[in-house]
Design a protein that fits this description.
Strand order of the largest sheet: 1-4-5-6-7-10-11-12
CATH topology of the largest domain: TIM Barrel
CATH class of the largest domain: Alpha Beta
CATH superfamily of the largest domain: Aldolase class I
Number of domains: 3
Number of strands: 27
Number of helices: 25
């Protein structure tokens, strides 16, 4: 079986391994020799080395480095950088390199290409052509030495290179290099179709799926840098290369990946779901996220190239008037099937819900997707699931799953109409994933006939930060939640007041993160009850800002006194930084907080119990250090997003048999 050419590329600068993005901002990754040793172990078939400094300022080729690389490498090598003469070319070949890669010199001296092809043979002569898109949308050859776009058309230029003896072409997209946005396939494919010599695509690979797309075109091979030196959303440095089995399955056998269509309540949910998407993206051909509401003020998030956050559904829902929605409700079979089984006082709510569901169904029905190869996923157990359930009953969709968190899971907190439809939903859905064991058990007990549909898939958080140093004698406390009645921040204020009254000599600094409709009234109460300068309330901030705060400040504890919870992500975030947590024993919270890694409060604690817990957790520093270590260990074992979402991705794929 002929193996496809999948070529790792390494960039060298000042003897170090680096990675750039769009030819800028080189990031140091380590010793290139170590990377080559790992590629030896991975049995890489060929490797390309570029010295990105060699052509600048007449610096020239680092022959000692080339010699070291060649001595370590077990695979055929290609080298580019600073090559200006036949003498350079001969010396590189004599060192043992299989291929010489020329870029700048080809732009400046075509005669060098002619002469080189005669001396070393076209099979060993590779030209790297950098291309960039102009403002008009056309492509031109780019000179990285001069850092400017030339007037050369890439197709014509490559034809000229071929006629002058080039044996292979690397087409590198400046716009895509290091971005994870996918290859510039169209222009590279166009170039490849116009010449007889092999053409290699380089720049933008995000996964093997992107390489698969390249190799399904007329392009001969795919080269990549970032995906072979980085791992994961946060780009941790990890030299890697796919196994033969992975290449065989995903490239040679061309295994078809499913499409994932996700419905969320709003694009503000994207912040919640982004960590999950950035782990599972490579398991799917496309992931399309459709919020039902769209907030134009929401900051756009960066996703992998196969993930799209789309406003079309939200635009459609917004365009429907209340009277249109009522008419849709009256035309809904769901309405007439249900009207005699609910309270008359809820008829209006039923009509609105059924009209809303009908509108969603109408819009989803217009989507173009492969019925047998598409999974529908609702992030919340809300009306969107009801719409998808109705479509599943009509066999308009085959695979449907949903998550359930807190307000959408517990009937006591939920909407009457949606609670009424839960048996209907549970009867049709493939799987429902609670984020906690408590939630799963609640559903199984309440809806016994559907207990085989309920599973647990925990959320998770990322953290590559180190613990903040312990440098303050002040007791540092943090809380993080939306300011809503269910979060009981006023109770926490009373607890802080009791602490200050009982332990006046202990200095405290309490930071609350999170806005909401109760922000002003909660702040007024804090000013009335607490000493000035001992508290600070901030509006909702980004996850990255929270991580920055936790990494620079040594918090003694995070406090959560909510009266109802799913399984709080805010606690996962705190524990990932080794911050012990004081929390009420509600919902799934006891699955993450216990008396070893924090303090579990009663469901309805008194201010005195809160104050005592704060004192107990911070007064004994040795005990606090133990809780700190156990908090991080608990996150690492149970709430690491990388682990949890990979498992969840496999759960989704299990719905469809791809063997």
């Amino acid at each position: 079986m002929l193996m496809p050419r999948v070529i790792p590329t390494l960039l060298i600068q000042n003897k170090g391994l680096v990675k750039t993005c769009r030819f800028k901002n080189p990031v140091y990754l380590g010793d290139p020799i170590n990377a080559i040793k790992i590629f030896n172990e991975k049995e890489v078939d060929e490797l390309v080395i570029f010295d990105i400094e060699a052509s600048k300022n007449g610096k020239g080729i680092d022959w000692n480095m080339l010699n070291r690389i060649n001595r370590e490498a077990f695979m055929p090598l290609g080298y580019g950088g600073g090559i200006n003469s036949i003498q350079d070319i001969k010396r590189i070949i004599n060192l043992g390199y299989e291929k010489v890669i020329i870029n700048t010199a080809a732009l400046e001296n075509l005669q060098l290409i002619k002469d080189a092809s005669k001396i070393i043979g076209s099979q060993s002569l590779v030209i790297c052509v950098d291309i960039k898109k102009t403002l008009s949308g056309s492509y031109k050859v780019y000179s990285h030495i001069n850092q400017k776009i030339t007037d050369l058309d890439p197709v014509d230029y490559v034809k000229t290179l071929e006629s002058n003896g080039a044996g292979e072409i690397i087409v590198q997209s400046v716009d895509k290099e290091g971005t994870y946005l996918g290859y510039d396939i169209n222009i590279t494919n166009k170039i490849s179709s116009q010449v007889k010599i092999p053409v290699i695509a380089l720049g933008g690979a995000c996964s093997l799926m992107d390489i698969n797309k390249v190799l399904k075109s007329e392009i001969s091979a795919a080269a990549a840098g970032s995906i072979f030196v980085f791992y994961g959303r946060l780009r941790a440095v990890l030299i890697n290369y796919p196994s033969y089995e992975e290449i065989e399955k995903q490239i040679i056998q061309n295994v078809i990946k499913p499409t994932l269509i996700i419905l969320t309540e709003g694009n503000t949910d994207a912040g919640f779901i982004a960590p999950e998407l950035n782990i599972i993206f490579d398991k799917f051909d496309h992931i399309n996220v459709y919020p039902i509401r769209w907030d134009n003020k929401q900051n756009p998030l960066k996703f992998a190239s196969n993930i799209s956050l789309k406003p079309e559904m939200a635009d459609y829902v917004k365009s429907i008037s209340s009277s249109q929605k009522k008419i849709m409700g009256l035309c809904s079979p769901l309405f007439w099937k249900s009207i005699l089984r609910i309270k008359p006082s809820k008829y209006k709510s039923l009509l609105n819900t059924c009209g809303y569901v009908t509108a969603l169904c109408k819009w989803i029905n217009k989507l173009d997707f492969d019925l047998d190869n598409t999974i529908f996923y609702s992030y919340w157990l809300t009306a969107s699931v009801l719409a998808l359930t109705s479509l599943k009953e009509q066999k308009r969709i085959l695979y449907l799953i949903s998550r359930a968190h807190g307000f959408d899971l517990y009937d006591e907190r939920g909407d009457y109409i949606l609670n009424f439809f839960k048996p209907y939903i549970f009867g049709k859905i493939n799987k429902l994933y609670s984020i906690s064991e408590y939630g799963k058990n609640y559903l199984a007990k309440r809806y016994k006939n559907y207990s085989d549909k309920f599973f647990v898939s925990r959320l998770g958080t990322f953290n590559n930060f180190k613990f903040a140093p312990v440098i303050s004698d002040t007791v540092e406390i943090v809380s993080c939640s939306f300011l809503a009645p269910v979060k009981r921040i006023e109770l926490l204020i009373l607890g802080m007041e009791d602490f200050q009254n009982r332990f006046p000599s202990v200095q405290i600094n309490w930071i609350h993160i999170g806005g909401g409709t109760l922000f002003d009234s909660t702040l007024r109460l804090a000013r009335q009850k607490l000493k000035p300068g001992t508290f600070h309330f901030t509006d909702t901030i980004s996850v990255s800002d929270i991580y920055d705060l936790y990494s620079k400040n040594s918090f003694d504890c995070l406090i959560n006194v909510s009266e109802s919870e799913g399984l709080p992500v805010s606690i996962m975030e705190a524990q990932s930084f080794g911050i012990p947590v004081i929390a009420t024993a509600v919902g799934g919270t006891p699955e993450i907080v216990n008396d070893e890694n924090g303090i579990l409060l009663p469901v309805n604690p008194t201010p005195r119990e809160i104050a005592t817990a704060v004192y107990d957790i911070v007064i004994n520093k040795e005990n606090w250090q133990k809780k700190r270590a156990l908090s991080h260990k608990n996150w690492e074992e149970n709430f690491d997003a990388e682990k949890n979402y990979k498992v969840f991705a496999e759960e989704l794929l299990s719905l469809i048999n791809y063997e």
